[in-house]
Amino acid sequence: MGVIGVQLVVTMVMASVIQKIIPHYSFARWLLCSGRLKWYQHPTEDELRNLAGKQQKGKNKKDRKYNGHIDNKPLTIPKDIDLQLETKSITEVDTLALHYFPEYQWLVDFTVAATVVYFITELYYSLAAPTGEMNISVVWCLLVLAFVMKNLFSLTMHYFRVEEGGERSLCITFAFFFFVKAMAILIVTENYLEFGLETGFTNFSESAVQFLENQGLESQGPISRLTFKLILALLCSLIGAFLTFPGLRLAQMHLDALNLTTAKVTQTLLHINFLAPLIMVLLWVKPITKDYIMSPSLGKESQPLMTESTYDTLRLWAILLLCALRLAVMRCHLQAYLNLAKKGVEQMKKEAGRISTVDLQKMVARVFYYLCVIALQYVAPLVMLLHTTLLLKTLGGHSWAPSLEPGEPGPLAVNSDPMAAASPEPTSIPGLAKASVAQLSMALGGLQTVFSPLLFRGLLSFLTWWIAACLFSTSLFGLFYHQYLMAA
After folding, report:
1. How far is the C-alpha of 131 from the C-alpha of 19, rounded, in Å?
2. What is the pTM (predicted TM-score) of this model?
3. Are 285 and 193 in contact (CB under 8 A)?
4. Buried b vs exposed e over 255-276: b needs ≥16 C-beta within 10 Å?
5. Do the Cβ atoms of 216 and 445 come closer than 8 Å?
């Protein structure tokens, strides 16, 4: 079999699907244009003039004169006008005018394609169990995370370009807050937060030193523990800054969605969806979850309810189910956002004074035109959580099937000799080429020993936990702001 084999075929087929089929059958476009989302059309100037009783009898407002000069002032109407906005289902033509629609469509559709490739690859690995192949689904997941970070960076820069409103100061403040929070979390002992970072870093340092010694180099390690944690804290600060406005927006949509629906089941799902990041955070807090499940107090004896590998598997499935729930209630949140146009008009009617027709039209139209910005802020953290979890499963050596036997070895015990797995015998390559291939295979095997599943398990566990913690922190602050500070 080749270096990639079946996985290469799956990748080529999915690339063809992305190029040929997805432009016509887009999951991202279906989420918006399935007929369930309604948006409010802004009234025309003639409609507003008729409501205000200001017919111009065929004259344009620019032709009105005052003291011999052309009056270019826009038409104003009373704020308490009896205005009823018309609703319309979102169509594919309407999406052409939406800001960030290409970025939203590409991210969602590529994420769907990458997820399909991942699970097909997982099925292939469970059936064929190849030992010398590179898992190409990891590349797909990394590409998805790169696109997510690019889109979040673009949205954050959009807020930075706004001179007024305080968005820039708020983003910088949260970045410093999350940097301090990350530094505090990184010094917490493993007895409370079970990431495996210390074990993974120790294994990485020792393996790197041994690898460099085998290459004839002397070294005390590629990086110090303090530098490693400082770099990780800076990355956490960046992620926290990117997730600030998605969390704040989610809090507002959560409150509006609760007011929009009266069904108890839907409200319960909305509450679970809002608390989903907190549930994910608690999955790594040992005294609350793992210690209680692994060693419950049952009278005089204490017997584990499940193995550690089973708990890791259930944790992965819990995150996937919570991500699926967040996707399921996405339309409810987007409709709550679209209703801000009607909410703004109703609030305007309670105010005294006048408003220009242009400002009124902008107030209503702006809500719809920024729908994809809100959709990106809702989808991007979901995609980050999903594909970080998928990488945690693959690179961390976890399994999708729970282990029922307490004495069964974990997934890290399988293929514990990466040199043998990554060093196939080049039997058909003669002479010098055979020696070069063997040397390259030994080097790759050594690198695989350095970047072991222990390192990836600790690093990706922490990043998954951190994304959930940032999203819950910002959404909780947004909930407090919109429910108490804005009300006051």
Report:
1. 31
2. 0.86
3. yes
4. bbbbebbeeeeeeebbeebbeb
5. no
Residue 90: closest CA among 78, 98, 82: 98
Structure tokens at 16: 């063809």
- pLDDT at position 449 is 75
Q: Binning pLDDT at 50, 70 and 90, where does residue 236 land?
A: very high
CA distance 43 to 283: 50
Place of tokens 């956002």: 337
Distance CA 450, CA 232 (A): 19
> Which token pair is 476?
């909780």
User: b/e per residue, 138-149, with b = 16+ CB within 10 A?
Assistant: bebbeebbebbe
Yes or no: say if 469 and 281 are a contact pair by the CB < 8 Å rule. yes
Give the C-alpha separation, 332 to 198, whole Å: 42
Asked if residue 147 lies in contact with residue 110, where contact means CB atoms within 8 angstroms, the answer is yes
User: Per-residue pLDDT tens for 366-419?
Assistant: 999 999 999 999 999 999 999 999 999 999 989 888 765 544 444 443 333 433
Amino acid at 208: A
Whether the CB-CB separation of 270 and 332 falls below 8 Å is answered with yes
Query: Which region among 115-119, 249-253, 307-311, 313-317 has the lowest average model confidence (pLDDT)?
Result: 307-311
What is residue 196's predicted lDDT score, i.e. its pLDDT? Answer: 86
Beta bridge partners of 86: 41
With CA atoms as reference, report the closest residue to 290 among 196, 194, 396.
194
454 close to 199: Cβ distance less than 8 angstroms:
yes
Q: Where is pLDDT greater, at 433 or 339?
A: 339
At 38, give phi and psi (nearest 5°). -115, 135
Q: Which among 246, 179, 322 has a CA at the least distance from the CA of 474?
A: 246
- Using CA atoms, how far residue 213 sits from 82, 207, 208, 448, in Å, is 81, 10, 9, 16
User: Do 226 and 201 touch, CB atoms closer than 8 A?
Assistant: no
Task: Give residue 296's pLDDT band: very low, low, confident or very high (50, 70, 90).
Answer: low
Residue tagged 């820039």 (tokens): 168
How many Å apart are CA 209 and CA 121, to the nearest integer? 33
